[in-house]
Design a protein that fits this description.
The chain is mainly alpha-helical. It is built from five helices and no strands.
């Protein structure tokens, strides 16, 4: 996944409207990619089965071409799995399934993003992100109270340190 794709999940609080408008289109595009990846994985699985069947028939028809004489079924299966064509088809299937799973993870994350957007819009509507305006007199009172509390905490911790030293 490249950097642009990772940015799909970012949400800017200053751009909720744009994010809400863009998310359905982005989700649709990734769902379409997922459907294509699922199709590709099914095709790859089909090709693997076909390759396996063709190789089994060939091993049974011409066992000597594979260095075998009237082989039992388990030996035929082993010969098929060891063929390069089978291994290549199997490798292709594994990659297609990985691609599908990776895209599925993106679609799941986009679904989570949709839920987060919904939650953020609700919070925004309730004024959660609004700035609190405080007049200068109240701000000064709060600042003095915090300074007094800090001073009291420092004095308390100094007294505790003295008591520990005396022990």
């Amino acid at each position: 996944m490249d950097e642009d794709e990772k940015n799909l999940f970012d949400i800017s609080l200053n751009g909720l409207e744009e994010a809400c408008q863009a998310n359905p289109r982005i989700t649709f595009d990734w769902c379409k990619r997922l459907a294509e990846a699922k199709r590709d994985a099914k095709i790859a699985k089909s090709k693997l089965k076909l390759t396996e069947a063709e190789l089994m028939l060939d091993v049974k028809k011409r066992p000597e071409a594979y260095g075998l004489e009237k082989p039992p079924m388990d030996v035929v299966n082993a010969a098929v799995v060891s063929c390069a064509a089978y291994r290549e088809a199997d490798k292709n299937l594994i990659q297609k399934e990985f691609d599908r799973d990776e895209i599925e993870a993106v679609v799941d994350a986009l679904s989570d993003k949709k839920e987060q957007l919904s939650n953020l819009v609700k919070l925004h509507g309730q004024g959660y992100f609004s700035k609190v305006e405080v007049d200068t007199e109240t701000a000064e009172r709060i600042r003095r109270k915090e300074a007094r509390e800090d001073s009291e905490r420092q004095q308390s911790s100094q007294e505790e340190a003295r008591k520990r030293r005396k022990k």
